[in-house]
Amino acid sequence: MPTTEGAESSVPGPRSGGRAEARRAAQGKGGGSATAGAAAAAGGGRAAARKSAKPKKNVKKIVAWSTAGVLVVIAGVGGAIYLKLNANIKSFDADAIARNRPPEAKADADGNRPVNVLLIGSDSRGKNNSDLGGGEDGGARSDTTILLHVYADHKHAVGISIPRNAKVELPSCKLPNGKWTKGGNTDLFNAAFSMGGSDDGNPACTQNTVEKLTGIRVDHTLVVDFNGFAAMTKAVNGVDICLPKPIYEGDINPNLKRKGDLVLPQGKQTVEGQQALDYVRLRHGIGDGSDIGRMKRQQAFLGSLATKIKKEGMNPTTLLPLADAATKSLVVDPGLDSADKLASFGLSLKNIDMHDLKFVTAPWRFRTQDKDLDLVQPDANKLWETLKADQTIDGQNATGQQPDAPADGTGPAPQQPAAPTTPAAPAADTSNSAIRVAVYNGTMTNGLAGKATELLKGAKFTASTAGQAASTKYKTTTIEYGTGQKANAEKVAALFPGASLESSTARGISVITGQDFAAAMGMSTGAPAGGGATAATPGVPAPPQPLPTTITNDARSADDDICANTSYGSGG
How far is CA 137 from CA 37, 58, 187, 225, 228, in A? Predict the structure, then answer.
């Protein structure tokens, strides 16, 4: 991608006294730069304390560069800027994509298809990225990879973080010299992007690896580097984050061997450029220092960023600089190699609600023989099967069959609730919108909590699907309510004839769907009374098994509290 004066001015310079400055001082470079001069004038500041520090090679840092993918997916652009954006975009070789691929997702009854987008963050030090990222190594690594599944209804999406140091089987991949590797060896997941040692990385190899690992066809791949990430955070005037502890220079760069100056204070704050990079790359000084906590913070960052863009709407003042910044450091698959294609794709996803944009991490465990990770089976395969079935992580059917307008009577039976579940008086009560309800599935029936959520929303309640209940043996739907919520709970119960009301020490109102609601909706109640398996319908694929709570309970919505679930293990 060409470097222009505009591109350079849109990227914030390295933080004063940061790693890039220390590295230049140690190498005798940049003595006349404004940054170096300012640091020298500061006397005993960070640069002076780190002049003698030698840059250490093989520094691998996770970076949420995949933000670019989320931005392009959600935002979209249009009009006269196409030509300018087209000049920014670079695509990788289509011939490097494997020939033996998973099948394309089938369209639902309305002709809608789910879309799988692979978001890759490159830590390449080429093209001025070393000034922002530090380090001197050549090549590139995919230190952040998220498989974003956009459901057929284009109202739900889930991003699956794949740990960079998970051991996986690598497929045959095309090298920069045109030859193909044999494949079949086991290596770290991020070794796929490094295949061939190019500063541009090998996104096609990563795509091939994800398809082999998951059995899911990747429709589009997007890669963004340090410069693109830094420029985008500045283009949106910063992103809101939250830290449970203050972060110092020694946390950002453990080779400093001292605490150093404050980089990021404790609590809520807005960051952009170098500070945003510091946040999404941060591993030490918080939690147990593992990549797991760092992925949690990256998910929180992406959710915060997506929420900000969504709130600002289709505002050209924000979108055009954002799209320009993103595409200058963007590499895409051949199917998204123009501004027109990116815009069309982005606009098709504008109806995703932030509460329905989820983030989870592929199930993992620490290996006993080294410091790497293994993906946990069969849990990981259950997750991939759930996505292939286009079901949300709580088992809700997210095909495009949910009507936006009143049904015309031709839809499937489950879309037309039976008489017992027809909304009663509360449906006409506009004050219901002030009542928040969390819905849990208390059975083995996939999608039942989602159906109850739809019913509540139809009656104007503010409802959200929360996942599986602690038990799946509820025969009767139960409405739990906290202090002062009994009257509101009774309004909710009017939608579920025969439901039981129970007081709870928890705040708010929860609906736990039972077998009675499943029967009223004409849905299977799971295993029969005798304990045997439900008979399969010939020619119809069996629904995926419910996901374990280790996955569903750890899920993050884009609109979650930015201070929650941003660390892993001990240490804050």
Answer: 26, 6, 20, 15, 19
